[in-house]
Design a protein that fits this description.
Helix 3 runs parallel beside helix 4, helix 5 packs across helix 7 and helix 7 packs across helix 9. The chain has a single domain, classed as NAD(P)-binding Rossmann-like Domain (Rossmann fold), CATH 3.40.50. Helices cover about 40% and strands about 15% of the residues. The strands form four sheets. It has a six-stranded parallel sheet with strand order 2-1-3-4-5-10, with helices on both faces. A two-stranded parallel sheet has the order 6-9. The protein has nine helices and twelve strands. It is globular, with a radius of gyration of 19 Å. By secondary structure, it is α/β, with parallel strands linked by helices. The protein binds NADP nicotinamide-adenine-dinucleotide phosphate (NAP).
Length: about 300
């Protein structure tokens, strides 16, 4: 039995769909029944599911709001996931947790390795980093996947924002000096299931414990990502807006974003034998789904 948390989110939804399609026994939980701000719900869901493995797709993900909502961000990204890790440790089962490129400041100038020092630039990144460190300080069989720029046809994300904005405005200004790797939630879910398959096949191995980078292959800027989204959307008759490149300084946000958050994925490939496909290959399918009339949220 696999327990999936945060089932209403992008990753939780993608995991739930895949587990259902595979016929794997799983329990998917979400708020209000499972809420990191209500610790008793964490224990209750865990005890009810009796899992043999937990995938934590729940997190406080509102990056800018976290600056003024620090307690909720801490519960969602640090103390809540830690409580879940401790339950997994006590039950001696694997715990797959998801973290972020925002643990880095983005000033390295080349793809980050798992061993590079962290230096988050805001509350969201700091709470995610604290979550990583406190989980690894337990004895849990923890696999922590750092991902980035997650998008899907389900939920709030950059691709949906662009599609919706492009319907209203003929010209969009998009930041062209931040580099990263768009990651389809479905591709991340596939990588996570490849990890669970490997754990099942080999039993738990000591080298599985720790941090792994897991982002879509290749890289781009937000401007490049937006341009590609509209290229793909235009093939479905969507009238694409003009996308003008701007600098980060022209789009101020409460939290400073890492200017270059590319993550090196070699460790994931070498230990688990899996990698995520190039972001540019996955995007057309997600854009097609986003443009379906029933995809309104
Ligand atoms: N989105 C990105 O660009 C991005 C980038 C890097 C890393 N990540 C990481 O990737 C993972 C998956 O992200 P995602 O994009 O799927 O996020 P998402 O779509 O925002 O979903 C987050 C999920 O967590 C739930 N949640 C929020 N606060 C909670 C709480 N206090 N207790 C229990 N559940 C709570 C949400 O529930 P509600 O629906 O009730 O709000 C939702 O189900 C997260 O660990 C995130 O930090 C995401």
């Amino acid at each position: 039995m696999i327990l999936v948390t945060g089932a209403s989110g992008q990753l939780g939804d993608a995991l739930s769909r895949r587990l259902a399609a595979r016929g794997t026994a799983f329990t998917a939980v979400q708020r209000p029944g499972f809420d990191f701000e209500k610790p008793e719900t964490i224990t209750a869901c865990f005890e009810a599911a009796k899992p043999s493995l937990v995938i934590n797709a729940a997190a406080y993900t509102a990056v800018d709001k976290a600056e003024t909502d620090q307690e909720a961000a801490k519960a969602g990204n640090h103390t809540g996931p830690l409580a879940l890790a401790k339950l997994c440790e006590a039950a001696d089962i694997p715990f797959i947790h998801v973290s972020t490129d925002y643990v880095f400041d983005g000033d390295k100038g080349e793809p980050y390795l798992e061993t590079d020092p962290t230096n988050p630039t805001g509350v969201y990144g700091a709470t995610k980093r604290d979550g990583e460190e406190s989980i690894l300080a337990t004895g849990a069989k923890a696999v922590i996947l750092r991902t980035a720029w997650v998008y899907s046809a389900h939920g709030k994300n950059f691709a949906r924002t662009m599609i919706n904005a492009g319907r209203k405005m003929p010209v969009l200004r998009v930041v062209a000096d931040q580099r990263g790797s768009p990651t389809a939630a479905g591709d991340l879910a596939d990588a996570i299931l490849a990890i669970t398959d490997k754990i099942s096949a080999t039993g738990w191995q000591p080298e599985y414990r720790g941090i792994f980078h897991a982002t879509g292959g290749g890289e781009t800027t937000w401007h490049g990502f937006a341009t590609a989204i509209f290229e793909d959307a235009a093939k479905h008759g969507y009238t694409a807006p003009e996308v003008q490149p701007i600098a980060t300084m022209d789009w101020p946000t409460p939290t400073r974003r890492p200017p270059d958050s590319r993550l090196d994925g070699h460790k994931l490939a070498s230990i688990f034998g899996t990698s995520l496909p190039p972001w540019r290959e996955t995007l057309p399918g997600v854009v097609a789904d986003l443009l379906k009339p029933d995809q309104k949220t």
